[in-house]
Amino acid sequence: MPHVTSLAPPPTRTDGRSLFIGGSWLTADAVYERFNPADLAQLTGTYALATPDHVRTAYDAAAAAFPGWAATPAPERANVLRRAADLLEARVDEATRRLTADMGKALRDARGEVLRSCAILRYFSGELLQPSGETYPSADPSTTLLTIEEPLGVVCAITPWNFPSAIPVWKLAPAIGFGNTVVWKPAEAASGSAVLLTEVLAAAGLPDGVLNLVTGKGSALSGALTGDPRLAALTFTGSGGVGTRLRQAVADRNVKVQLELGGKNPAVVLADADLEDAAVQIVRGAMLSTGQRCTATSRVYVERSAAPRLRELLRARVAELVVGDPFDEATDVGPLASAEQRDTVASYLKLARDEQVEVVVGGSVPDDGSCFVSPTVLAGVRPDSRLVCEEIFGPVLVLEEVDDFDAALAAANDTEFGLSSGLFTRDLGKAMAFVRRTQSGLVHVNRETAGVEPHVPFGGVKGSSSMAREQGKAARQFFTTTKTVYLRTT
């Protein structure tokens, strides 16, 4: 096991008061404990196990708060988001360490995520001041035609553990900013960060009931979260299976649905590419955040003439990564987020051994019970192997040789997913052909597949998304509804 120091913070919340409903912090009859993924003996927090009754109370509070919040002028709502960004930035060190304690993300990555959350809050505080609605010419000279954007009502946000700060913020900021109220269920592993973010938003001036936090097991709460008749919109990031069940639960009602369901993201490397830079970008995309990103690079298709050189560059880059205590600033790759996630990744590495694929680098899982695994590059994997087809959600990369650009593109598109893809080349024509023909919602040319910015749409195609985009102006479209007004003036 990598050396783990004693840099982890003390428990972040040990009183179980992690339900924030109607402006008050509450506990529950039952609690659950969370432990440092880098040292599973170290308690990092105790949180309330919400019940369906808590969820119903949260909907009561959100529904009661909605009329007043919806009527609040947009500049005032923008001020709340701006203050939240300032307050979160003032607590950046605490938020960083709490995020790392939640899911083991290396401190440098965690700090970047918290600062990105601040940027998202500031972006949406500005977006609220942009023009809203449109005017149209009318066939009737006495009529003025215009549209008005209005909030939807009560939004349910269900967020994952892999980005405990950024993903909640990119859902909550536009949902709240555009005048909705929210019932928020974070992943259990993200509870500490969820509590801190709720504290920040409440301190920024959110009225009671606008944001309601319920912690606990999703399986016990999903019926209450999706079944409430006051639910107007559902936004979810997580596994495809859970997302499908959530979508089915609201399919017979007029509920807007926004789902982001993962990826198996390819990178294509052509022989003319800058191979050294490609290796840097691919390793960043595949291994940082311990590979626990829906946009992580997981498959590489390289033209044969460039394959030996790229293979060696990838091997060397991965071997240089510092795997260890995520609270150490020198660490590149921390542990996986939980023992369950470690077991999942370990099962794929066992499959690689069973299928006798080549391990270019890595491939080991410590037998000491820790959550660390070695960043791994595999080669010689069958195209129909689960290693190629399934989202592993760990630091595992499959490298395959192909004959040419067309073969690489076909292999890249041969997946049920379609979130992000990348191409490395100096050929502008090939780059534009890839942009047009790749089956993914995000396309990166000479960049890692995992980078996103908050002011542009985010989402995938095929099994990766419900097609309702997140972030940027797409968030305005999802979290509002349009009212068309015929105004006769004479």
Automatic annotation (TrEMBL):
One GO MF term attached to the UniProt entry: oxidoreductase activity, acting on the aldehyde or oxo group of donors, NAD or NADP as acceptor
Catalytic residue positions: 260
Keywords: Oxidoreductase
Superkingdom per UniProt: Bacteria
Listed InterPro entries: Ald_DH/histidinol_DH, Ald_DH_C, Ald_DH_CS_GLU, Ald_DH_N, Aldehyde_DH_dom
Keyword Oxidoreductase annotated: yes
Domain Aldehyde dehydrogenase: 31-485
Homology family: Belongs to the aldehyde dehydrogenase family.
Name of the molecule in the record: Putative aldehyde dehydrogenase YcbD
Gene it is expressed from: ycbD
